[in-house]
Amino acid sequence: MSFDSAQDGKTGGRVKILSNVVASSAEIQAKYGGVIPEQASREQLKSIIPVIEESLRQAQCKPDDLDAIAVTRGPGLIGPLLIGVETAKTLAQVWGKPLIGVNHLMGHLYANWIDQKPLRHNTYPIPHFPLVGLLISGGHTDLVLMKDHHSYEYLGGTRDDAVGECFDKSARLLGLPYPGGALLSKLADSGKPGEFKLPRPMANSQDFDFSFSGLKTAVANLIKDRAPLTDQQKADLALELEQAIIEVLVKKTIAAAKTHKVEQIIVAGGVAANRKIIEALKTAAMHQNITIFAPPVELCTDNGAMIAAAALFQTDQADPLTLQANPNLSFAY
Ligand code: KG4
Ligand code: ZN
Question: Residue 221's pLDDT is what?
Answer without folding.
Answer: 98
